[in-house]
Design brief:
Pfam families: Anticodon_2, tRNA-synt_1c
CATH architecture of the largest domain: 3-Layer(aba) Sandwich
CATH class of the largest domain: Alpha Beta
Radius of gyration: 32 Å
Family: Belongs to the class-I aminoacyl-tRNA synthetase family. Glutamate--tRNA ligase type 1 subfamily.
Helix content: 40-55%
Shape: elongated
Function: Catalyzes the attachment of glutamate to tRNA(Glu) in a two-step reaction: glutamate is first activated by ATP to form Glu-AMP and then transferred to the acceptor end of tRNA(Glu).
Strand content: 5-15%
Subunit structure: Monomer.
CATH superfamily of the largest domain: HUPs
Distance between the termini: 75 Å
Number of strands: 12
Strand order of the largest sheet: 1-2-3
Protein name: Glutamate--tRNA ligase
Length: 453
């Protein structure tokens, strides 16, 4: 059996770091198992689904390192859903209902008032052919519900019916079908709900494992029943915890600042995002993993916690900085050139320890190439003016800074911050940055002299 998993986003917006978690979990699981990863767009909502979001999602996944083995679109598979729905209708497992949303809500309210669970009472099953015809003559169109197998012949006498499975993340799980309403699989306008289309697709595409958020746990029992009604064995399920904000709020497409596109555009590394999305909320330490192959080796669904995984943007920035500090010049050479930085390995090795993102290198390139608006405090003006006279002759090397400051210390008696800071400020315009002994050779003699008063 070839392990086959899928990620099935709805192209109605940009994916965010929360969406990336199931995408990455499925991709890593497939790669670790030598299996296949299917990207399947839930685009049956023709009003809200947009091609621009399809392209955006593909672009974001590939940036993260997820390269699908197969791409499908549900909008192109309606005939498959029609055929599967007819099979359930023929078997008496999909039945028409004519209640309006308001009527259903009033019925649920009455049940709650009587202390009963708001479960659909299957009243539509009692309708005669003449009653259904009369309702349709009024202009009502039916929605279709799946008859849950929670009875022994009489659907109006339900009994406890547990559907159990061994969850890859949560261990032994069970859901009682008697506590649930028959799910609607076809809307009154004839469109299919994702619950149904995803099951048909999973069967047709040979999906063996479904890894998704824990908010779907309660749906699993119903879905297993539908798999079996269609003559298929249900896949293995795994329900991981969800990423939330630091305050515990759920993430959504409306939180644009957390979209993968915005994180990419802010200069973050894909592996910083992937590392945080995968490792947060597990028993493993959250650390920057340099490459997807290494993350595949580290990935373990059994390590996923049952409590929420809180996403901290500051932690993401920290992970990113740690990754950037270790990036070799060859890994960033083209990106530096794209930023207008015409520099060799010495520049990157000097500045990378002070960069939170690769884009931050532009700040230090400005320091090296100029122009720089140096800063001189009034009490340092005479000291900086004298510094020019003590600047060593000859080639500027890593030893130049020590020789220069040593001579100035002997001449002026200054030491520590009072000796170093005025020179850093006048040459770089900054209070912090790379070690000056490494920075001076990059700035060069002429720029140094030009910046001294």
């Amino acid at each position: 059996m070839t392990v086959t998993v899928r990620f099935a986003p709805s192209p109605t917006g940009h994916i965010h770091i929360g969406n990336s978690r199931p995408a990455l979990y499925n991709w890593l699981f497939a790669r670790k198992s030598g299996g296949r990863f299917i990207l399947r767009f839930d685009d049956t909502d023709l009003v809200r689904s947009k091609q621009e979001y399809v392209e955006s999602i593909e672009r974001d996944l590939r940036w993260l390192g997820i390269d699908p083995d197969r791409i499908e679109r549900q909008s192109e598979r309606v005939a498959n859903y029609d055929a599967a729905a007819q099979r359930l209708k023929d078997a008496g497992l999909l039945y028409p209902c004519y209640e309006t949303p308001d009527e259903l809500e009033r019925r649920r309210s009455r049940q709650r008032a009587l202390g009963r669970p708001p479960v659909y009472d299957r009243a539509a099953l009692k309708l005669t052919d003449d009653e259904r015809a009369a309702l349709e003559a009024e202009g009502r169109k039916p929605h279709w519900r799946f008859l849950l197998p929670n009875h022994e012949g009489n659907p109006f006498e339900t009994q406890r019916t547990e559907v159990a499975w061994t969850d890859l993340c949560r261990g032994e799980q069970a859901v009682d079908l008697a506590s649930m309403s028959d799910p609607v699989l076809i809307r009154a306008d004839g469109t299919y709900l994702y619950t149904f289309t995803s099951i048909v697709d999973d069967i047709d595409m040979g999906v063996t494992h479904i890894i998704r958020g824990e908010d779907h746990v309660s749906n699993t029992g119903v879905q297993i029943a539908i798999f079996e009604a269609l003559g298929a064995k249900a896949p293995v399920f795994g329900h991981h915890n969800l990423l939330t904000t630091r305050e515990g709020e759920g993430l959504s497409k409306r939180k644009g600042a957390l979209s993968i596109a915005s994180l990419r555009e802010s200069g973050l590394e894909a592996m910083a995002v992937a590392s945080l999305a995968v490792l947060t909320g597990t028993s493993q330490s959250v650390e920057p993993v340099p490459a997807m192959d290494a993350l595949v080796e580290k990935f373990d669904l059994a390590s996923v916690s049952k409590s929420a995984a809180k996403f901290d943007p500051e932690e993401l920035r920290n992970l990113n900085a740690r990754l950037v500090h270790e990036l070799p010049f060859e890994a960033v050479k083209d990106r530096l050139a794209g930023l207008g930085i015409d520099a060799g390995p010495e520049f990157w090795e000097t500045v990378r320890g002070n960069c939170e993102t690769v884009d931050d290198a532009r700040t230090y390139w400005q320091v090296v190439a100029g122009p720089v608006e140096g800063r001189i405090d009034e009490e340092d003006r005479d000291f900086v003016a004298r510094a020019r006279d003590f600047f060593p002759e000859g080639e500027v090397t890593r030893e130049t800074w020590g020789a220069w400051t040593g001579a100035l210390k002997a001449e002026t008696g200054r030491k520590g911050r009072g000796l170093f800071m005025p020179l850093r400020r006048v040459l770089t315009g900054m209070d912090h940055g790379p070690d000056m002994k490494d920075l001076l050779p990059l700035i060069g003699r002429q720029n140094i002299l030009d910046r001294l008063p």
